[in-house]
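Weekend entry, working from home. Most of the wet-lab plans are on hold until the incubator is repaired, so I used the time to fold the two sequences that have been sitting in the queue since the last round of cloning. Logging both here for the record. First:
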Amino acid sequence: MRGAVLAMALMAVGAGCSTQPAIHSEAEDVYAVSGRFTSSVPGLLIAQNAALDEAQAFCREKGLRFSQLQDQVRPGDATYTVRFRCLAATDPRVQRPTVNQAPDQMF
């Protein structure tokens, strides 16, 4: 019984995803990928996750690092598009996390 409920839940989630994200080249070293799901807030989050996972895996397969350039959200049809580059780890364009400094003033 429990397995049947899990299988039906997975089928319902799978039915909402209209396309598998596909990466396409937009310029010499700029790529884009879109994720699409049912039009809802959770669907948009699933679309975003699928697109980002696909982009990161694409760069990882090339032995490079994912560097996001721009993203776009179309909530009406729950589509998330990310434009990105795959960069060498030593490339100065690779985004590094910033460290929060202590505030200058204390309240």
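Second, folded right after the first finished:
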Amino acid sequence: MKNRTTIKMGFLALLMSMNSIAFAQESSTKKEKQIVRNGVYFNTAETGPHALTLKVKKLKNDDGFVYLSLVDENKNPIAKTKVKIVDKIAVIKIDSLPSGTYAIQYYHDINSNGKLDTGAFGIPEEGYGSSNDARGFMGPPDFADMIFELKEDLALEMKTVN
């Protein structure tokens, strides 16, 4: 029974982490004016010289959307987007980023309900992932494992779990 409780708590932590990126594009917890550029919602007027191209692979199907969130090293939200899927791949380009340290989390919202669906014990039923293909044990990955440096234009590929 203790083992089941540990599993349940780990997946609840993962769910809470993933739901922190489950957002409706028209809502924001802060009263900030968001800037929209090329379908990407920015929390600030980013004006850096770098582009980040992301390829999310190993999606189950082309249904729904991929919701993606980019945060800085202090976990401050930088950008978020919702992207269509073609041939089980989602491609996202985020431009005008300054050099810095970032992390990404995403999920595949197959049924387009705007959230990461979970089953028994909070285990995700839809695909999800993060930068560096970081994986957690019985919960979300450590933030430090997701961090990457952006010093020039960068292309990243991420493999979906589940």
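Plan for Monday: verify the second prediction. The helical segments are 2-19, 143-146.
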